[in-house]
Every structure is written in C-alpha cells, then in structure tokens.
Design brief:
single chain; MetI-like; mainly alpha; flat; 0% strand; 8 helices
Length: 231
C-alpha cells in the first residue's frame, strides 16, 4: 500500500471508477426518464429524435462512441467557443468521462424506463388524471413508484455495466482502475498479479452492488406478491 508498492494506486483507480460510474449512472438515469417520457408522450419530432438517439447509441460499439465523444466532442466545444470569441478550455477528464458514459447510459435507460412505464396498469394512470393530478404530481406520486419494481432489474444491469464501462476510459488515458493496473503491470512486469487484483476489485464492487440492489428491490416491491428470484 506504500511506495514503491502499487496497492494505493489501484485503490485510487477504483475510487475514480466508482465516481465515474455513479455520475454516469445518475445523469444517464435523468436522461432516461426524460427520454422515456418524450418517446411515450412527446410530439412526433421529439419521438423521432429520441428514436434516432437510442438507435445510434445502441448500434455503435461503446468504445467507438467514447473515442468519438471524448475527442470530437471536446474539439466541437472549443470550436464553438472560438466562434463566439472565447478562449479554448481544457475539459476535466473526470467530467468528460462522466458525461460520455452518461450519454451512453441514457439511451439504454430510456428503453428500460419506457418499458417499465408501459408495464404499469393503465387504470392507475387514468384514475390519477381523473382526479386532476398535474403531470408533475402524476410522475412523482403514481408513475415512478409504480414503475420501480419493473425498472429495477434492468437498471441494476445498467449500473453493473457502468462500473465495467469505466475501464473503456483507459483508452483515453484516464486514471481509473484499469489504467492504473496497466501502469503497475507495465512497471513491474507482474501482469498476472495486477490484472488478477483488478479483477478481484471489480468482483467485490459487483458483489457489494448486488447486496444494495437486492435491498432496493425488496423495498420497491413492498406490499406486492413475492416474485420468484426477487432479492
């Protein structure tokens, strides 16, 4: 854990991976809620644009999207700033990593949440509208609580995917767990040792996540009939 050891570096990389995964999943969830509502209740133009977004993101390999958004996106922002007379900026790698993965997560979250909303018995939605609930209150009081049991399994998978997708940021040189592991293995030539250590850390993160997800799922399904395999 102390220099010249690499244990501290690996834990620092794991912390960065968790921060990126949490940020990407959170912002992706926000995009997903908006995207699902747009595809279900938006106008034709909004629905078509969202369909293009989800189709492209799900069709193109994530590594290609990360390279495209990370480099081309930064270049486009600086070109736009130059047009308006502002100096170019150096975008923080952590922020860029979060938003790149959030863009990818948002497309998948959109479809998960859209399917969960469609699984809600429509009588509940119609009854809420009959009582005169505003769209915002309908979302908070009816739609989100009713869709959670249907959405959690898919969202749980997206969270686990987000923790692993952080490894793709190593290709752009960001110091998450995989990049730190590559650096340590290259310096010591102990490739098996360090990549096994990284695999164990990813596994421990997934096991801990499964415990938390199981508790959330039991909470979301409170009062509902027990389902085989739940929790």
């Amino acid at each position: 854990m102390q220099p010249p050891g690499w244990g501290g570096n690996l834990l620092y990389g794991l912390l960065n991976s968790v921060i990126i995964a949490v940020g990407a999943f959170g912002f992706g969830l926000i995009i997903g809620v908006g995207g699902a509502y747009g595809k279900l209740y938006g106008g034709p133009v909004i629905r078509d644009l969202l369909e293009v977004y989800t189709t492209i993101v799900r069709a193109i390999p994530e590594l290609v999207l990360i390279l495209l958004l990370y480099f081309a996106g930064t270049d486009l922002i600086n070109r736009a700033l130059d047009v308006f007379g502002y100096d170019p900026i150096d975008i923080n790698g952590l922020v860029a990593g979060i938003w790149v993965l959030a863009f990818v997560q948002g497309a998948y979250s959109t479809e998960v949440i859209r399917g969960a909303i469609l699984a809600i018995p429509q009588g509940q939605i119609e009854a809420a509208r009959a009582y005169g609930m505003s769209p915002g209150m309908l979302l908070r009081r009816i739609t989100i609580p009713a869709m959670l049991p249907f959405a959690i399994p898919g969202l749980a998978n997206l969270w686990l995917i987000a923790t692993k997708d952080t490894a793709l940021l190593a290709i752009v040189g960001f110091n998450e767990l995989t990049q730190q592991t590559r650096t340590a293995a290259g310096a010591t030539k102990a490739y098996f040792t360090f990549f096994m250590a990284a695999g164990v850390l990813y596994l421990l993160l997934s096991l801990f996540s499964n415990v938390i997800i199981g508790r959330i799922e039991r909470w979301a399904r409170r009062g509902m009939p027990a389902a085989g395999g739940a929790g």
